[in-house]
Amino acid sequence: MAVSFGTPTRWQPRNPSLRIGCSVGILILLVVLAVVALFFLVPGWHARLAGVSTQGTAHLAGNCAPTDVEDTTPTYRVLIEFSDAQGVQHRDESHWACNNLYDEGEHISLWYLPDDPSSFLTTGEFLWLAIFSAVWLLLTIPLGLAVVMMMGRTLLGR
Questions:
Q1: What is the DSSP secondary-structure string of 14-40?
Q2: Which of 101, 106, 120, 123 is nearest to 59 (CA)?
Q3: Which end of the chain is more exposed for a tag (fewer CB within 10 A), N or C?
Q4: Band of residue 116 on the pLDDT scale cut at 50, 70, 90
């Protein structure tokens, strides 16, 4: 005598309140991710896409204290010096306060906003912006789709 368990199905919560609770939890996580994007990713992308491209020079302004006793990699406060389209010289600190992305006197490419030259993005910072943006998208898109699917099934009564 063969025992049949029916067709295999994916586990789905049958309780609508559980779906709504999961959806609310994921929505809160999406709001946190949106705040991260608003304060960290959007300004960088704005400087990259709407900014003016120029060349600058990195200057090491000071050695930063190591955060870990075992970490012997030196990090520095970096000042970026560049001229805008009007020829005005700017010297602003890198947004990555203590880093080892640049050497003293290194020539770097950057993008700055003409109305706010202190808002700039260097090529080294852009690399990290692209990586963090990709990770952000890999987290946000599936979570958003999960909320839509759970709420849709709850509203349709499935």
A1: --HHHHHHHHHHHHHHHHHHHHHIIII
A2: 106
A3: N
A4: very high
**Structure tokens given for 18:** 């559980």
Each residue's pLDDT tens digit, 51-105: 999 999 999 988 887 767 777 778 888 899 999 999 999 999 887 768 888 889 9
pLDDT at 98: 82
Beta bridge partners of 121: 111
Using DSSP's 3-state secondary structure scheme, residue 127 falls into helix
| Stated pTM of the model | 0.72
Query: In terms of C-beta density within 10 A (0-12 exposed, 13-18 middle, 19 or more buried), how is residue 87 classed?
Result: exposed
Local structure of residue 157 (DSSP, 8 states): T
Residue 71 backbone phi and psi in degrees, to 5:
-80, 115
